[in-house]
Prior knowledge:
Layout: E1 3-8, E2 14-18, H1 21-30, E3 34-37, H2 56-68
Antiparallel strand pairs: 1-2, 1-3
Amino acid sequence: MPSYNFIDENSGEEITLEMRMSELDDFKKENPHMKQKLIATTIIGGMSTNSGSLPEGFKDTLREMKKKHPRSTGVDNFI
């Protein structure tokens, strides 16, 4: 369930609430003194491109790209 950050304009208190996206609009209408605070989130998952553990099939595709464009250096650090 997503987390949303709010600032209470009356007290200045910052709170984090978990609710469904479908509940968010109703919460904002019922609590006009609470203003949503947008923050940058982190993305979890996937593989790091610098870990050296890219799938071999993907590396094969990068090698084929390198063959077709030998002077390009954009994929050198991945293969």
